């Protein structure tokens, strides 16, 4: 455990060092890397991130320490820049970072609202019930949950997908701890790999897309490398999964009215966001907010037609003497889109605010120019991007990717795709390296653990290396 704590501390320190400097640091008098404020800011961010990584053990929500750290860092920056007569420069940097966060907040809020609406309409429950009812053996379930994680995460994000598949594994795995652990590892790897080739699959890919560095269609070049990243460890791990059948009982799940239409509206929302970005070069968030209007109008339609729908269902249930159907009808509540908004993962959204503002503050202090000079000027950019992926396994990939985007190094399209790939799938190396892994440690507490994941790290690392080699070979023309 001592070694784990030391590695966490080192990871947080390296990330803090990475998280600095933008164009503002180039302004004369703005370099505060050797100042007391600079060192204090690094220390505050490092301590905050240690608390974030200890969330599972401390039971402390990860948004709390970074929100406090962001406030302290910007308070110190405000005092220093006011003394230097450069407060307008600090305000411009603050507003820039707030705008960056606002775009991502609204984008993610709409996506999370749609996912919450699908969950409320029981789409995910129906999928889970279907998988359990088919009577698959453990090895088949291992491949099915992994494959579905890989295919769903590009649309529903890796965190939501991982939690959905984990629920299935927990239900069918029962007391078979070995199967639950290895299946959860497979889900984490598959969800992170699937999220790497879609702007909607992970926050890091979303950031790269919104920055305009990679277009929506260019992410498809990462499909095969991402697939390789999943398949290599999955094949090796599947050899250790038995073919015996679990003892499970199936249940019928009835979709609520409008469930399938909400899926279609979500697809239309994605198309709208892509259209705004591709045709008029506006931020995709404008299209996502328009897509939220689709859901609001559909929610209005569901509420207005609820009474008529219930009358028809009640008459049919009475005619068929179906008491269960009558009970379900009696428990129906109107669809409320604002209730779905309230069910968004606010801890994650606020955590992201803290990260963006901390990184933005350290950026203004000038640390990024120093680290960027080493990583992207003295090193080969390919090796620098591979290191980004390894760092994202030690700490969360969000601050690492945001730091790279703040650096804005001169990279080819191939290298931007590479850093997107490594930051996305590198988090699979450790259970604490991605939101999916951390969430599953909570959902399958005591069954999927840090050390249980660590045993398979060499196998996962093979997939990591194989995906990089695959990208370098297949997309060589993009470098």
Give an overview in words:
This protein has 479 residues and is mainly alpha-helical. It has a domain at 257-331. Helix content is 74%, strand content 0%. The chain is globular and about 80 Å long.
Descriptive terms for the model:
disordered N terminus, 479 residues, 24 helices, mainly alpha, globular
Task: Give the topology, please.
Elements: H1 2-18, H2 36-53, H3 55-58, H4 63-83, H5 87-120, H6 123-133, H7 138-156, H8 158-173, H9 177-195, H10 203-210, H11 223-238, H12 259-279, H13 284-304, H14 306-320, H15 323-330, H16 337-342, H17 346-365, H18 367-378, H19 381-394, H20 397-407, H21 413-425, H22 435-443, H23 450-454, H24 457-474
Helix pairs in contact: 1-2, 2-4, 2-17, 4-5, 4-17, 5-12, 5-13, 5-17, 6-8, 7-8, 7-9, 7-11, 8-9, 8-22, 9-11, 10-20, 11-24, 12-13, 14-15, 17-20, 19-20, 19-21, 20-21, 21-24
